[in-house]
Amino acid sequence: MIKMNASGAVRPMLLLMLTGASVSALAQEAPATPAPAETVADNGTDIVVTAQKRAERLQDVPIAVSALGGDSLERQRVTQADELAGKIVNLQLTSTVGDNTPIFALRGVSMSDYSLNQASPVATYYDEVYKGNFAFLGVAMYDLERVEVLRGPQGTLYGKNTTGGAVNLISRTPVLGETEGYLNLGYGNYDRYEANGALSVPLGETLAARVAFTFARADGWFKNQLPGKPDLASVREYGVRGSLLFEPSDSARFVLRASTSYQNPRNYGVYAQPEAVNRPGLSRRQIEANVTDRRHARTSSVSLTGTVDLSDALAITSVTSWDKGRLNFYEDTDGTATELLEIPYADRATQFAQDLRLTSDFDGPFNFILGAYFNREKVYNQTTFEIGKDIDSDGLPGVTDADCAVGFPLGCLFRNSFDQVKKSYALYSDMSFEVSDQFTLRGGLRFTRDKGVQSNFEANAFGPNEVLVMNLIPPSRLDYSTENLSGKIGADYKINPDVMVYGNYSRGYRAPSFNAQAFFDPSELSVAKAEKIDAFELGLKSQFADRRVTLNMAAFHYTYSNQQFINVDPATAAQTLLNIPRSRIQGGEAELTVRAGDMVTLRGGLGLLDTKIKRGTVSGVDVSGNRLSNAPKLTFTGGFDATVIDGGSGKVSLHGDINYSSNQYFEVLNIPRLRQKSYVLLSGHIDWESADGRWTASVWGKNLANKFYFTSRVDLLSGFGFDYNHVGTPRTYGVTVGAKF
User: Fold this and answer.
1) Helices (runs of H) and strands (runs of E) counted in the chain
2) Please, what's the b/e burial string for 216-254 (b: 16 or more CB within 10 A of its CB; e: otherwise)?
3) What is residue 37's DSSP assignment?
4) What's the pTM?
5) How far is CA 379 from CA 326, 347, 423, 513, in A?
6) Alpha helix (H) ranges present in 167-292?
7) CA-CA distance, 340 to 169, in Å (whole number)?
8) What is the pLDDT of residues 406-464, one digit of tens each?
């Protein structure tokens, strides 16, 4: 039994940002009474967000939020969630488990674990539905209204597993009384074919439906030099989403959504050093991989969101959801033609969740949100280590099942599997009190009770013919039960209608976790303690020059307690789940947008991070003073949008983007050879739109300089003779044409 409490040390803010950078999205002027957020487009100076479970102008929300409009995402070719990391400062990505299953890091808060049973401390939400397990993510970056990235702990309205923040993907909804739609077709290098579109139709005065889809296929960019073997890191996926809007009256609104997606590309390739470097005739994006199986990921989900106005000042909202997902892939871990190390992974998960909240909209000074939440997640995991299947301990071929039964030479298989059930119950509140027209006090609390059971855990050794030769960890069961109180208190002051300063203290909480990587000894079975973060933040939101200039800044200081961390012993590959007791994070970011005129917009974003482990030991090494993983000291995003022709033949516009990241580590030992050096990514597109807005065409390119960089690195040198690396996608480019109707 693990017992948690809400106590913890907190320390004052040390750093204040003094420099400017980027607002990541544009949208239309917000109405006096905010419209449903789904109707917001990205063609003006303000954007409406629902970051605090209400429709509000971004500039009125007293937290650090970046927003990307759906049209901008489409034009910038953001087709998978991984690519958001290049659009938002202080948002990083680790892709240890492959594309479209991102492990986000936000302000230095990250998940140092790639196990498929884990949940990131940067939570991902689709239309207010929490997607904690990798198997639920699937294909989702299509037909979106916008994406919101909330920085900092979200311990009240969002709850557990948001110690770093939250990423909200918000899809478009049907439109009553109107028929509308679009279709986009594209072709790119690596023989990429793609299509996406949507159709919204009325089904009466109170009912409307929308169907959206996406489809893409592309050859692999990781070129396999083994004769007869296909290239890796291909694309093969589709997604379909259906929505039904029902508004029986002005006071009731219901949206039913159902979606499914499927991916079965050739799996990613692993860039293994020093083999990949020293192998004669191999370039950086060439590989000799003997395992080229397809990766399989399927998702299905249904959700019902309903809002009913109980009066002019009170509304009740319900979000009910069900998810199912499967993720299976066979990883060529050694990245070579040998069978030194391969790992098949399997993850199956289902989830049911219910969120119910009461929201006020009083004319008076006091307003609130009161809610209750329940989530049940069931997961099955299976992982196999296939070590040296083509050699035995003497370097000779021909290992048998009998050999494995005697002494586990190379060539034996090691497999674990388990069931995991987690239940979460929560009561939460968010309140505000307007002391005056300019000064507002804010606060909130969330009580969470989490229960978890890991059952039927078993690890076995098999011979090369899958014959069981020994039970290494007998059937075992672990459980935890914990309670947590997280909260937030703060204030904001409006200097004038367009300038606001705010400050707050908040606590974030990430639930305990089970180790999925125990293989050899029962001592590897463990439950990692819950994480928590105590965070102070100061911020400024401002607009100038008739709202043509928007500048938002924030500074923060975190005390990070019990970060969960998977430790890989480089000598034996044994993996243990542990906690780093104490770390410190401080930094800031700024976002700047300048509409220089009706034809030109400039964008920029700057993020600063200073991270330090205050106390912790990993593999017997004191890591105090080291930097946290996935935490570059400086990130920058910038870009421009310029209309160069606007006449009877249509509109031609140019768009460019830059993303800079300073050096970083992917592990807390800060091994010098595994440090990712600083790098710059360039992308851009040229767009044409007909005078009536019905037809579009775009020529686009990403990573135009063809930069080679790493997205994750693991030290396996002393145990297996190589470092395990993932590398970023090379230069891609193409053309897209579209029609609206």
Assistant:
1) 4, 40
2) bbbbbbbbbeeeebebbbbbbbbbbbbbbbbbeeeeebb
3) G
4) 0.90
5) 10, 7, 12, 13
6) 275-278
7) 40
8) 776 677 889 999 999 999 999 999 999 999 999 999 999 999 999 999 999 999 999 88
